[in-house]
# Entry
Amino acid sequence: MAKDRKPSQVARDRRKIADLYLRGKVQQEIAKELDLSQATVSRDLKAIQEDWVREAAQALDRRKAIELAKVDALELEYWEAWKRSQADAISETSELSSDSGGQKMKKQKRVDGQVGDPRFLAGVMQCIDRRCQILGIDAPKKTDVTSGGQPLGQVVDEVQHNRAIHSLAETLREIVS
# Structure
C-alpha cells in the first residue's frame, strides 16, 4: 500500500476514488482495488466531497450572478421605457385648403403631455421582487390554511361548540363538588 504519495498521485487517486465511489463502491472495496488503506480512501473521500460542496456553491453563486445581471438589464429597460412614456406626444397634421387666393397648405402641430405608463413601473417592481427572491432577502411568508375562508383552527360548527362548552361545564362541576 502506498504511504507517501506525490501531489500528482493524490490527484490521480482521487479521480479514481471519486469514480468508484459514484459507481456505488464502498471504501473497503475502493481501497482494495487501488491498493490504498481504507483510512487513506476515507480522507480522500472527505476531501473530494468538500471539493464537490465548494464547487456546487461556486456554481450556484455564478448562476445567481447571471440571473441578477439579467434582472438588472431588464430593470434598466423598464426605466428607459418609463422615461419614454413620459415624453410629450407630438402629432402633426397637414390640410390642403383652397380659397380665392389659391391653394394653401395648413400645418398643425399638437403636443400632448404624457404622465407615463404605469405598466413600466410595475415591471420595475417585478424586477425588484425577483432580485429579492434570488438574494433571499424576502422574509418568509405566513400561509394560513383555510376552510371556507376561515382559518382551520376557527372552523367549528355550532354543535361542536355547544358540546365543548357542556363538557367543560361538567368537568368544572366535578372539580368544584
Observations:
- Strands lie at 89-99, 102-112, 146-147, 150-151.
- Residues 45 and 168 are 62 Å apart (CA to CA).
